[in-house]
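Async update (no meeting this week)

Hi team, since we skipped the sync, here's where things stand on the single-chain job. The sequence we agreed to prioritize is pasted below, unchanged from the tracker. I ran it this morning and attached the output directly underneath so nobody has to dig for it. Comments welcome in thread, and please keep replies under the output.
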Amino acid sequence: MIGRRTPAGPRGAGAPPSDDVLRETGPSDTVRWNTALVWFMRVLGLVWLVKGLLAWGIIIGLAAATTPFEGATSGFQAAIIYFAVIDLVAAIGLWLTSNWGGVLWFLAVMSHLILAVFFPRFVSNSALVIALFISCIMVYLVLSWLAAVEE
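Output:
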């Protein structure tokens, strides 16, 4: 980051520039938690974009499902349509690094976890997926806290 310019002072306009003409402001070798949070949200946004597109793939029949979407139970259809919409909207919000994107993403993850526990027929309930979602929540909360404390 380029700092502020200092006035020419007693040296005059024709004097050679000194070391304090352009000065760095703030430490440059420390971790910027705000930047880490932005990159985490962008990567998470891309992952959720793929997750939403996969849900749409199930709806239009591109995914290799055992039964067609029209022949599935209404509970399964409702869950897939819900995640097809909320995952894409959350992905856009995460990419834009907006507050509502984080909230919608948290709602989508918690919805998935709740459905995985109570209705395992509708969503994936493998231990790996649940652990991945919980670890993403923890990383998001820690990075958000560190970015807020940094300011």
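Quick observations from my side:
Residues 33-60 form the longest helix (28 residues).
The CA atoms of residues 45 and 120 lie 25 Å apart.
Reply here if anything looks off.
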